[in-house]
Amino acid sequence: MKEKKTYVTRTGVSFEPELLSKLDEWIKEKKFPNRSEAIRFIVREHLAKSELNVDPNVQVVGSLTYLYDHHSFNSSEKLTQIQHDNDEIIVSTMHAHITHELCLETIFLKGKARQIKDFSEDILSFKAVIGGKLYITPIIFKQ
Prior knowledge:
Layout: H1 17-30, H2 35-54, E1 59-69, H3 75-84, E2 90-97, E3 102-112, H4 113-124, E4 129-138
């Protein structure tokens, strides 16, 4: 199978010495192989975040992870019902027993940004949910 070549355009960027030093520290901490990879990552992240703020219909993938008390009145059944009501955006769910009372769930999601955010707000605002976080990224870059 023939490999597709990826072309890049070289460009120069000027930094103040202090900013460059902080960037190099961050690159080392995050284990990027070089400045170019780190800067590409930063630009992609910024563009993805901007896209989420501009277009509520942008297609996204992501995960919602939350901790809840399964001894709370019918919490497991109610949370499961919310998931079944939104099955068109759920790719997969992982459930873990943390303690006798607490469960951790991660739901992998794919759909329109607004729809994913609304679903996540329904879950995270549920009384038995102790805490959680949604991470989404738009599907805008071709690899």
